[in-house]
Every structure is written in C-alpha cells, then in structure tokens.
Design a protein that fits this description.
Helix content is about 45%, strand content about 5%. By secondary structure, it is mainly α. It has 2 domains: about 5-35, no CATH class; about 50-100, no CATH class. The protein has a two-stranded parallel ribbon with strand order 1-2. It comes from Roseiarcus fermentans. This is PIN domain-containing protein.
Length: about 100
C-alpha cells in the first residue's frame, strides 16, 4: 500500500460523479484508518534510496510520462522495498517488467 493509493481511494469514494452515495471525507478517512490498523498491511514510503531507484526505473522505462507517473511511483516504491507482486485490476502495471500483477477477480 502507498499513501497515494490511499488518497486515490478517498478521492474516488467521496466523488459524487463516481459514487451514487459518496462518502464524506471523515467517513473515507475512518475507513483508511481502519485499514491501517490491519497487522498485515504496510505502507511503502520513500527511503534515502528513492531518487536512485526512480532514476534507474525511468532510465529503463523511458515511456513513463503523463498519467503513467502515478503508477510508476507505486512501482518504484515496490522495487525500492523489494515488493514484486501487486493485486490489482489495473492492467497498466503489466508494463513494469519487475512487477508481477495478480488480478484479484
């Protein structure tokens, strides 16, 4: 998990054009807070190696730009922390050769 994913979750769940009955920001934050209490959940944060890892990934994958930067940030954090597998319906992550994508459905 990353903070940007958690904030994106909050963006979607509070958006009236996305949700028929959008949550309030406090409701979404309460859910995020409950998730963060899970003993099996860790939040990946940048370390002092982040710039080097990001530069390496951008060098290897020069197509990263625009809307792909958000997914690249997640993939870079994964590489930085040695995480290889992501469970997601977002097929864009298949573009990162160092990430194994598992479709949860």
């Amino acid at each position: 998990m990353t903070w940007s994913i958690l904030y994106e979750f909050m963006r979607v769940t509070t958006h009236p054009r996305v949700m028929r009955k959008p949550w309030t920001a406090p409701q979404a934050m309460a859910f995020v807070s409950a998730l963060l209490q899970s003993p099996g959940l860790g939040v990946l944060v940048a370390t002092d190696r982040h710039v080097r890892v990001a530069a390496q990934v951008v060098s290897e994958l020069p197509w990263i730009s625009g809307n792909r930067v958000h997914d690249a940030h997640t993939a870079i954090l994964m590489r930085e922390h040695g995480v290889r597998r992501i469970c997601t319906r977002d097929s864009d992550f298949r573009r990162f050769p160092f990430v194994e994508v598992v479709d949860p459905l």
